[in-house]
Give the backbone structure.
Amino acid sequence: MRQRRHYIVLILAISIAGLMGCDSTVPEHEPSLVVEAWLGTGSSLPPIRVSTSQSVSAELNALPAPEGTELQVTISDVLMPYERGPNPLWFHPVAASPPVLSGGESFNVMLESSVGTVTASGLLPPEISLLEALITAPASPISVVLVDSLNVGLDSLNLAINATTGFIYPVQVAVTWDDDGHDGWIEARLQPDATFSSSLIDFFLLPSEVFPESGAKRTEDGLLRWEGVYAVPVPENTSPLPEHELRVIMTRGDNRFARYMTSRDAPDRRDPVSNVNGGLGFVGGVAIDSLRITVSN
Amino acid sequence: MVLWGPSTGSAQTIRLEFADTPVSDALEIYAERTGVDVVYSPLLVESLRTSCRYRGTSERDALICIMSSHPFRVEAISRNQAVLIPLESDSAEISDVVRVLSGFVTDAESGESLNGAHVVLPGVGTGSVTNEAGFFAFPGMNQKPVSVVITYLGYARLDTTVVASYRSGSFELIPISYQVSGIVVEEDAQRRADVAITPGLVSVSGRELQRFPGTLGNTDVLESLKWMPGIQRAGEATGGLLVRGSGPDQNLYLIDGAPVYHPWHAFSLISTFQTDTFKDFSLYRGAFPAEFGGRLSAVLDAELRDGSRSQPSAKLGISGLNASFIMETPISKRSSFMLSGRRSYIDRLVGRNHPVEDEAGRRDTLRTGYHFYDWSAKYSFRPDSRSTVSVSWYAGRDALDLRLPFDLSLDFSSWLRPADLFFEVDQEWGNRILSTRYQRLLSTRLFLTATLFHSRYRARENTLIRPSQSSRVSSAYRVDLEDTGARVVFDWYPSLSHQVRFGAEAVQHRFDSSLDARVAYTPSLVEPLDESSRTLASEAAFFIQDIWTPGPAIRVLPGIRASWFGSGSFARLEPRLSVQLAIDPTWLIVRAAASSHVQYLQRIRDRNAYLYDLVSSRWVPAQADAPPARSRQLSVGLESHRIPRTVIRIDGFVRDGRGTLLPEDEFQSKDGLLGPGIEVATLLGQYDRGEERSRGIETGWTTRTEHWMLSASYTRMRSENRIVEAQKAAFRPARFDTPHALGIVVSREASRWNLGGSMDWRSGYPVSVPTSRYQLEDPVTGETTWFYHRPDINNGRLPFYLRVDLRAAYRFDFAEASWLTGISIYNVLNRRNVVNQTWDPARPGSTPQNRLGLPILPMIDLVIDL
């Protein structure tokens, strides 16, 4: 009888252990170094932002890299010393007049700290030169729905509930640049004054795009061309187009750059696809050119 | 043993008069006049003659009159079937002649064949399971009377004595009706567990499955099956079936032998398998026999009702979601017909078209249409007692038709006005199948089943969005998948210890899709996307399997399936082996199985674009960069009927798979309108080849009494996967990994009241929980953005899921019909289960935003049985 009781207790214990087996592990925070280095062709060595990831429950203040973190940047096998600046988030070149980077040069970035070692490397793309920007806007504003996302999926058809309407000037911009035969990726961006930008209406417009350079349209002159549209909201359907500044920015990079740029626009769903070994962030060689234009009626 | 009592006599007067007539002729005349089929051995009566005169109402006495001068005993085996049994003292020499004891098992009320009935010869120590035609055979029998016990869930046990002969007998089982008293209910517990051999097989009649809860007052096969161990639904009340940690696309759904590719309505809320419409279901979990192929995880083989052979009947039903009917009728003595239909009616209540006009006189017609429907029909014809021809047809469709203002609000009245900015969605998706089946008993040892089928899945999505006066988005997307195939299966019974099934099948798959999309950002900036594709792929397979009974306690089911797939010229072998050891037929049965499965078609979805992926499931054939997926499974199970009226099952399994498609970027979600297009290569580019593995223990407890049923299942399981290309990638919990799942169903069925309750408790699904937060700067503007870091996919888990449903139904008679009205309360605890979580990195703290499941929902339904 006693033996049977022991068996029952044993079976119960095993059953309870099986039932209560810990499947819902709580992931633990492990700090990582976050590096942001944008090495621009035709530009001098840039300052590099280095921070540390923090616990999800911490205050929303960027956390600098730990004391003693050392940053080494190598350009075409030449070591370029960096040191931490007055703002602890930033590391600056030690040289008083840092060298200007050229297309085709290789770079290597390495960080060593108590958190770990982080490395990244790549090549600098050739320079890009914007030639022209042609701007078109309608004579009067148009009515538009203000919606920031289409929440459509198999489980729901929640299409733009509680969206509102307003008025905008859709401003179309055509940009051309030289075809130098480089087969990289481009991020084209129309950056009006911040006060005009609104993600609510951008969804159905084209204020920015990441695309392969080989897929860009060509003009009759053999130039590469991209067209985008941004919105300038106005209060009424009779309002004139407000005068504003527009910056047209074209950034050239590699496929990892494209991956990073297309994955950083949904912070609630994901973190960007990093190209940094052992850490987070992005270290990339890019070529940037921009035009600043005053747009008025 | 069923005795032919005097009460079974017909009310009609039977007149017989024979003078020195051959007994065989006399029996034929007797059968014509009484409708009672007499089973006997022609060899035994070929030299016998009879002289008899009878006038009366007793079928038994009439038969005794014919056989009175001969050494035979008359015994009934059903209401319209009798058997002539030679007395023991009869000739010893002919009793040694080897014969085949074979027969068809049918429903005594409707005449439908019963697939999966257990036929046991207790005296011989063997048993078998009927095939799709309800046929069974025991070769190597002598002509001595043999006791036969036939059981089937939901039917009264048939216990009779027969003699092997040249002819196949017919055995009718009486369905259990709780309105009929005096019928002894046959419990599953008393069935011979050692007869079935396939581990993980759930074989159940539509009648029996109705005792399990459905969806929101509807009887639904796939929802009912989720109460079986190791099976769950992917979503809360929606989503595909997950069997032993598999993906929803790894299950094969068959209706009368034809595949159904998207067996769901109402965004997977309910399935196309309406319980009333089907005769029986066989769900093979994991190690399915060699006759089935094409999927990695499970096979649901459903048979439409043949239609009643005895009398017309009709049933009408209405629930909160839809109205339905089913009618069955004999057309002639040898043919029957079944027709059923179901349609949702929400669009009839809300209205489909809404003409609107504003103060300025502007007119528009808004649309709010959604409906789904099913049609099923089956015509069965029996040209003779040895063959059946049936034609089955099924068509189901969902249609969504919306035209609404874009700036709609939760206030419904605000929708109904003309609007310049609107969206239109016109979607349809559905399946259509046609299956023709010919079944023939070629000899007492060889049975043929030939099936021709055509199956089509079609989805169409037309969208027009006008978000501003100068921009416009339109798309027309279409996906078609058509299968045309033939299957020939032979059941061969060479000896009492071997039942061989072999056959071949050939299928032609056709994949069509097209997309014509335009995004006009401005009138002069238009981005078009116009693509189409067509792929043909042939698939052929041959299989052979044998139920080998080397001894009374052991059964072995070896099998092999050889298949070839045309689009990539893939050839694969799939060996299968099941072994069963009956330590005691009722006390303990041990089963083990090892099997290999190949899947040539996989389902993928576009992970980037909004415009053309709302409802379409894209099935893509195996090709060079997406070779066939393969899985292996090993399972061991125990089954015990030791406790009266109770079946206890414990199964353990281990399975792994290679070549399944996993998203290349798990976090990629739709963020664009057009996306990369519908080229298969492009879509496959969003996926990587993956590996998966799962293991678990399933326990099930089922107790049935005349009125009560208690079914409890607990599954302890882990399912994981990883991308093969990712070097040293660790296995991670799969999307629907559910370590613990407990389901309990209790029902009580009496003559008036049907009461039921169910509880569904399981671990929450995995979720990718952020572990840290960091800030990044925009390289151009310098703006900072906070991001969460999620180093591992599915590293956390949602809170556990718990739901309790209740149901009560009352049966009454009114206006010469039987009525059943019921109320189902979904989520009676009103526990708002967390079905998803999101985190906003820009908000302090780490509290997730929970997306909650459905609240308490009462639904009323009514069924009228005419």
